[in-house]
């Protein structure tokens, strides 16, 4: 029996894995292709547990975040084990023929290291780039940043977390001097009187979190949901506001306008705990309700109802998620809502405040330990000399050898190959072809590289383009820590042996490092940098590297995590006395609404927004391969009025076009979406061929959540579309 | 810049933004001349201050420090006496002069005084019971007169001092109705006098105007249309219909006209407003520009903030040599008054005269009148009274000139209906988290049984009520019961 955490979202639900094999002795676990646990379960409870490949998921009722609850992704998480598409040997492509063949580990790693050395000699270290992921464990994220800075010597490293909560991170740093998703435990929302969710569909994206919001309502608290779609989350709201995509900031400005107009500003809090209110107050004077209504499409009566709730209690929590953040003005949008929270005196007071609902499994930890282009471990900035000094000492290198700031995620990918930037890319824990905006363009950039190396479990859409594919261990086959959306560091523990032939990401990193670092990597540390493959050792080193930084993990150990059901870095409840700014005060920052980068026009008259469905996670590389999870492919959600306008009926194929690409998928006609907006889930290839790559000036977040699109009837069936039958075959169940 | 209202403030902001963004390299020495003695404020919220929903302090747009911080010479209480275009300077009443390379006139409008005998005293001042409603000072004067000076009080609290007091609002336009409603909210017995045969006659047809009058009367405000005030005595206003309204207060909101006296004296071309071209430049003098209520572009003067702001934005571009043009604005007029719902898009009366197709739904029983004027599949104007359902969508379609399908305008006017509850088919998935169908739950004996067997309700818990209902439904079905 192993206590661990779900492989997917940032909630990191606790769960118990039980081996169903009758012979559970060490080393005896079967590998790929093992039989399911026939006849191995008891009678009565047999329908309540899901099992595959000898592991079954059972509740871990004591873990406070999910209290034993899981969504169907969690219940079925072990089904990916033993999947017939699982990669178990490195693959190498012959550039001349395009053929891909199995190779040994030494051959593959030698080849990668050899090509990297050639490129580095010819074009310098910045010709090599690394792309990480927000799903990687803290240990991997840390080690990846070290690989880039120490073994490759490149500044060109970033990760897909830029496409997650980066706008909230940027806003949090500006306003509070620190970036932690939630500055309080999630369960605190139960004790609030009002919770406002801006652009979160948590009932689908992190279902077990919804229990806390249901308890809030059970206590008589009110839930407000702001979303262009009446989602399953919005259906349980006491107040639902349905703005035009890309106008959440105008709504925040309008809310603050009315808060000030009503005299509901907490003047004492503002005077003693913040700076900058006067400028913000003036800036919202021109956002009266009727103007907000015209910009946002939210009726003045609804805005007033929101403000009545906001000003009804001191226990108000405002939470943003991707809906508010994935915009070219995402940082400003979050700042707009933080300003509302500060004016009401919420942050740092009990059962109140602002928070961001991080998305990816290690969205929080993944951004703290150095896989971001501008950061070193512990949330230190790479251009801070003291930070460089400290980290270089831990790494056993000279500070001046550390490269500087690199390109942000989208800019990095956009610069690859033909783009004039790096010629080689190493990818860990990311499926760029599906998840990058303006995916056509980025795919072309990937194809123009001299060398693309992808580490993955299966032949993902990105791995399929690679020169070298390295098969890595998966979730239950390895140990590591993740930091959930609350800043709670949790431990995922190994519960099964990996198939023969795969290695952990840490082993891949060490294998490359030993081939690339000139000093011996096996020494005592004084001889130069070392790259351990033992997660607990790496975590201890991460602790030393982060010591004294904003996200300081030095006091956390695996033992403590096991004993305490996770350990918060910093205080579980932050800002009670002061903020993490030099003078301890929070900052109001003026946020001006400029609107989406691309407006609707004659040719592209509807808004397109993208998002998630319950049964899939991110690019679907894992969840689309789990038989018990329905995979019906993408769809185009639209309102009956819009459906009538173009003459499409529910289920019929419809084409969505933008300036960047097109997608054909069945229409899903629903009354729950704004009639001027269509929605496409992004888990399948296609949605991100449509999305806009306009970036937020500070977080460098692309505008996934709104662009201008046109709609039309498809002339052929969806199978002839972008969403090819081969993409789909992999996930089909029946 | 002559004027310190909302248009001028927006222009200054736009110029400052361009300077700090580095998009202009020009060195600016900006002087703002405002005749009011206070920093600029959001004038359109004055009726909200009167009503008590806004504190006066929250109206300030920029304080004096902000101008100082950006090196702008803000002169308050500075009245301009004369513009001297040949010398390129303006002279203030205190005798000082300010030179300019570019002069922006943003002088707004001035209220017109209706021809009522007794309104103006022999010495030229207004009768003590009479109030204009143009500036924050006017607003505060009126508040003082009704004893509602304690403006920090939340709306809805009692204003005992207003008890038994009466007011007459002269003018049944947007401002008049807002003021009337605000006074009504303050507990003052209020009546509205409008010379035309219905309220908001510039925006609404007579049917909509009548519905509006009824809505207003339902809120306790009496309406007299087709009636002109002709004589003010000490405590009453006499109408030309023979009616005499006893009153303690008279508020004048009967329209305004562009403030053009300075421009006219300076020899600039003025018709209803100061005539400007697509670059918002006077057709008589390339160094002079006009924006906002005082400007006339393409034969039109506006009286609203959004067009003034669009003009300010364009003029900022013009002044920094951007190739921008002003080609008119789409106006959405919204009445700002509690429980009185009116929105007017564009100029519905004119669009109807010009052959626009009218899609209309009138429900006098409910007190609503909704009209869209459609041309070539696009909403070109509209008037919504008494029911603003879907307002946020209708204005989006209007602003973006969305090409609509033939049934859409009609659907937009229908009230949204709550989704009906239907019996869930067995194959309907009721628990997304665990992927459980209604049929699977119906097969369970109890809530706990369903939870145990299917895992429904154990994820997000959102299906709990549905599961309870399905289980209860099942247990009610006795063998002889309905199928």
From TrEMBL, chain A:
Residues 21-53 are annotated as: Disordered. This is Nitrite reductase. GO terms for biological process: respiratory electron transport chain. It comes from the Bacteria. GO terms for cellular component: membrane. Residues 607-708 form the Molybdopterin dinucleotide-binding domain. Residues 2-77 form the 4Fe-4S Mo/W bis-MGD-type domain. The lineage of its organism: Bacteria, Bacillati, Actinomycetota, Actinomycetes, Propionibacteriales. Residues 86-515 form the Molybdopterin oxidoreductase domain. Residues 28-42 have a biased composition (Gly residues). The keyword Chaperone does not apply. One of its GO terms (molecular function) is metal ion binding. It holds the Pfam family Molybdop_Fe4S4. Gene3D superfamilies: 2.40.40.20, 3.40.50.740, ADC-like domains, Dimethylsulfoxide Reductase, domain 2. Residues 43-53 have a biased composition (Low complexity). Signal peptide: none annotated. Keywords: 4Fe-4S, Iron, Iron-sulfur, Metal-binding.
